Amino acid sequence: MDAPTKKWSELIELGEGFLTRKGIEESRSICELLVARLTKCGRGELHRFLSEVPEERLVEAMRRGLQRVSQGEPIQYVLGQWDFRELTLKVDSRALIPRPETEQLIDLILRSDVIKQTPKPLIVDVGTGTGCIILSLAKELKDGFFVGLDISPEALSLAQENAVRCGLAERVHFAQSNGCGELDPESVDILVSNPPYIRSTVVDGLPAHIRDHEPRLALDGGADGLDVYRELVQDAIMILKTGGVLFFEIGEDQGVALHDLLQDHGFTAICIHKDYAGHDRFVSALQST
Ligand SMILES: C[S@@+](CC[C@H](N)C(=O)[O-])C[C@H]1O[C@@H](n2cnc3c(N)ncnc32)[C@H](O)[C@@H]1O
Fold first, then answer.
1. Residue 289's pLDDT is what?
2. Domain check: are 108 and 142 in the same one?
3. CB 211 within 8 A of CB 264
4. Do 199 and 247 fall within a single domain?
5. CB 118 within 8 A of CB 142
6. Is the dihedral angle over the CA atoms 73, 79, 82, 83 positive or is it negative?
7. Confidence of residue 175 (pLDDT cuts 50, 70, 90)
8. Are 52 and 117 part of one and the same domain?
9. Do both 207 and 106 map to the same domain?
């Protein structure tokens, strides 16, 4: 990574070799993502730039990005932004990087009967992180009231920046809260959450780019991974209207435990939904009383 006379295509080759020697997986894609970001193009348009020789400042930026990735930082944090459905969100170490499975959670909600039957639903997203879920719902639904809650002030500050960035600051309200906090009883149509659900002992063994860079508060669900679900189910009983629905993202081995937890608390129409990889990934349940 030295001479400013090299074309982007050559810099990608060099970068790929550098990262591979450092033991980084998917090094080619990472280099392409970096170059796409620096040339401000989509990855699919990259071919238009490959034979260009970039300015020295861009070569330097590429060098800095490669250094950060080589030290284990996730590429998403290095890029500083990541696409989620229709939005390009700012991402950094204040919050979890939005995962592709979570995009499916939005589809589940958009296709649900409760959405079809409720003209202006109140939707609450607990553990909002970057704001990806609630901002997407606000973007893709014409009407409604949208609230994002998080226990982490750092995550909330990022979610608020994302709301401004996406032109949704007027439509989404964010607040700090442990669980559902101070919401009025029987006021909420939809409660959605992708809470931390990894067992504490498993968090310690996660790949370093996750364990050492993403907030532990976003990952660690306690001894059995279910701590925050237990709090949320208790809260949901209070705040959901009769006919209100909760939607949770879950770990692939947590379907039975969530089903039992929700049944024990009087929820009905409990349904476990699979992700595109065929794993149990979401649960929905109805507050019928
Ligand atoms: C797995 S991340 C999900 C972030 C984002 N919703 C997403 O899907 O990418 C979980 C989030 O829950 C928040 N959180 C953890 N415990 C919480 C609690 N008791 N009450 C509210 N938020 C909590 C964390 O700060 C983190 O932002």
1. 84
2. yes
3. no
4. yes
5. no
6. negative
7. very high
8. no
9. yes
Residue pair 194/133 in contact by the 8 Å Cβ criterion: yes
Please indicate, yes or no, whether residues 60 and 103 belong to a single structural domain of this protein.
no
Q: Which residue is it, tokens 């620096």?
A: 38
217 CB less than 6 Å from ligand 1? yes
Instruction: Give the pLDDT score at 2.
Output: 52
**Residue 193's closest CA among 139, 244, 126?**
126
Considering the domain boundaries, does residue 252 fall inside one?
yes
Answer whether 76 contacts ligand 1 (Cβ < 6 A).
Answer: no
Same domain, 117 and 148: yes
- Predicted model pTM: 0.95
Asked if 251 and 197 count as a contact pair (C-beta separation under 8 A), the reply is: yes
Question: Cα(125) to centroid of ligand 1, in Å?
Answer: 9
Does the C-beta of 151 come closer than 6 Å to ligand 1?
A: yes
**Does residue 24 have its Cβ closer than 6 Å to ligand 1?**
no
Q: What is the CATH number of the domain that holds 239?
A: 3.40.50.150
Residues 102 and 67 reside in one and the same domain? no
